[in-house]
């Protein structure tokens, strides 16, 4: 089942204003311009949960950033067996729902487990699993065993409790100004923000206080380069100098992007010293067949062998497509259907993501 989203309480007035701002006199009129029915639209505006895809569509139509608008229940992704086993679309934040990427995890944790910590880039298309991988890096080593799948590896770091992790989503408008971003980093590191919280003071506070291994995860760095004039060359160069000269090997950045960081810098007219510090690049695409089988085997109802093979072939082991096809099959199995009609629906549902496959 697709996950649902609802408007965060602090945004309910904002979404109503957005309706007027975009020239729609009423919810009924607005409804004529979008796919979801009026009942869904009414639920959206009154803060009730609606289907994830409709939520995105409505936000897009109203010019709202859906990530900001949504109530952040992703952090509370269900951790028990009764919950929907598939997450199709939203990044995975709970380690027990994350599968595979063993090779990349090994390489990435190798860069983080010794001094000096080293920087890395994660490159992959939209919906390839970049954000999920960043969340996994941040959470896996400190998640208690009872919240993991049996046998799920978590001992990647010798002293995980000493690590500090900062997650920055550059698609979040609050991260798109210098001050907003610097304050977020300081707050995540439990350091007091100086006044004014400018680049110079930020550098001083961090270089004086950072004494344990720290990893700053920069998700969708391309957005920062393309759309945020305040995040200019001076800004990135200061971060580079912080990593290389002022934090005694305790700081590393891991970024994610659809393109390589140096190309990205080049294409967006930035000089690239900051982007040259990313010595290792993980390219993420499909899971291995074994990893994909593990995902399918985690289901509450076992699938017939021929369905497993059909799903592996048609998804080409791509995690999002796997999740979509498994969701369709599980749904029909739960309904007691024993024909192949679900395959047509599955193929239909995965069409939107055809560009993920070769
Ligand atoms: N390692 C994984 N295990 C299981 N599902 C995954 C994994 N990585 C990605 N997915 C699936 O792909 C979808 C998109 O992942 P996401 O991390 O948001 O991609 P990106 O950030 O690259 O756009 C998720 O909703 C989930 O269904
Ligand atoms: Mg993402």
From TrEMBL:
InterPro entries assigned to the protein according to its UniProt record, in alphabetical order: AAA_16 (IPR041664), P-loop_NTPase (IPR027417)
Keyword flag Transmembrane: no
Organismal lineage: Bacteria, Bacillati, Cyanobacteriota, Cyanophyceae, Nostocales
SUPFAM superfamilies recorded: P-loop containing nucleoside triphosphate hydrolases (SSF52540)
Stated name of the protein: ATP-binding protein
UniProt keyword list: ATP-binding, Nucleotide-binding
Organism the protein comes from: Nostoc parmelioides FACHB-3921
An example Gene Ontology molecular-function term: ATP binding
Domain of life per record: Bacteria
Orc1-like AAA ATPase domain location: 98-254
């Amino acid at each position: 089942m697709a996950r649902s989203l609802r408007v965060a309480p602090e945004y309910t007035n904002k979404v109503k204003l957005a309706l007027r701002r975009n020239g729609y006199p009423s919810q009924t009129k607005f409804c004529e311009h979008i796919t979801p029915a009026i009942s869904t639209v009414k639920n959206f505006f009154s803060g009730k949960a609606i289907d994830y895809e409709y939520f995105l569509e409505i936000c897009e139509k109203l010019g709202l950033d859906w990530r900001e608008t949504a109530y952040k229940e992703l952090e509370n992704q269900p951790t028990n067996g009764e919950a929907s086993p598939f997450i199709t679309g939203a990044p995975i934040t709970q380690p027990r729902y994350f599968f595979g990427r063993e090779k990349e995890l090994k390489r990435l944790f190798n860069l983080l487990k010794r001094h000096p910590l080293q920087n890395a880039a994660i490159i992959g298309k939209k919906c390839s699993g970049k954000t999920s991988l960043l969340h996994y890096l941040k959470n896996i080593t400190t998640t208690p065993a009872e919240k993991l799948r049996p046998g799920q590896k978590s001992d990647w770091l010798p002293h995980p409790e000493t690590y500090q992790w900062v997650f920055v989503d550059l698609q979040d408008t609050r991260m798109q100004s210098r001050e907003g971003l610097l304050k977020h980093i300081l707050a995540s590191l439990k350091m007091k923000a100086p006044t004014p919280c400018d680049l110079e003071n930020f550098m001083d506070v961090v270089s004086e206080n950072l004494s344990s291994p720290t990893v700053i995860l920069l998700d969708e760095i391309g957005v920062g380069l393309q759309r945020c004039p305040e995040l200019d060359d001076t800004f990135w160069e200061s971060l580079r100098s912080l990593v290389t000269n002022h934090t005694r090997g305790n700081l590393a950045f891991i970024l994610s992007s659809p393109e390589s960081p140096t190309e990205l810098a080049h294409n967006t007219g930035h000089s690239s010293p900051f982007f040259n510090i990313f010595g290792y690049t993980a390219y993420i695409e499909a899971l291995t067949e074994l990893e994909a089988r593990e995902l399918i085997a985690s289901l509450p109802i076992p699938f017939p062998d021929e369905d497993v093979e059909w799903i592996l072939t048609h998804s080409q082991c791509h995690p999002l497509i796997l999740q979509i096809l498994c969701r369709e099959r599980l749904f029909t199995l739960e309904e007691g259907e024993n024909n192949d009609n679900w395959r047509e629906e599955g193929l239909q549902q995965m069409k939107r993501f055809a560009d993920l496959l070769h």
